[in-house]
Specification:
CATH architecture of the largest domain: Orthogonal Bundle
Oligomer: single chain
CATH superfamily of the largest domain: Intergrase catalytic core
Radius of gyration: 23 Å
Number of domains: 2
CATH topology of the largest domain: hpI Integrase, Chain A
Order of helices and strands: HHHHHEEEHEEHH
CATH class of the largest domain: Mainly Alpha
Length: about 220
Amino acid sequence: MPHIGHLQLNQVHDGTLAPYVAKRLAQGRSHKTVNSGLGIVRRILNLAAKSWRDENGMTWLEHAPAITMLPLVGHQREPQPLSWGQQRKLLPLLPDHLARMALFDLNTGVRDDVVCNLRWDWEIQVPELGISVFEVPREHVKGRRRPRVVVCNSVAQSIIESQRGKHEEFVFVWRRERVKNLDDAPLMPYRPIQTMHNTAWQRARREAGMPDLHVHDLRHTVGMR
């Protein structure tokens, strides 16, 4: 809605989707973002032609139309993996809890969603190797086809050990710490973090001279290395 919500399934095709594409581009959306929406439409049409059937066993569509995606070459931001020097410059500018998360990401290559939602009950300890692996459920894996196993190297494992005992459920948490009266009880309990891409991340990347650095670039860094 409002572009194709009034149409029957057999009326949805490149021509009737054109106003939607034009409006999204006019709003400044990237080709990748527009393709995400088109991908949902294509998925539904394919299911209607192959899987979904009426009470007589007939598919909802005889054929699924081909949905044309927008080109990504020249319209997509290139990955910006960190050099070792940039990493040394960025991490000290991050708050301690965020620096630990970034360093864990730089040694595992997992997505922001996995770091923020990492749970202790996903952990499988391997005492023979002195490390842990985490079995990430499908709902936190892109594509959601199967769980993913995250193996900790020595750096990632040291970060995991530093987080033990802070929170019963989540591995990475934060709280506002006291700057005076340090012997008093903490001001607040530890709580999970919604995203690494917060105001502290934005401030640190700006101060490090990398104003366009994305959290996902940490994953690209692992792939490069």
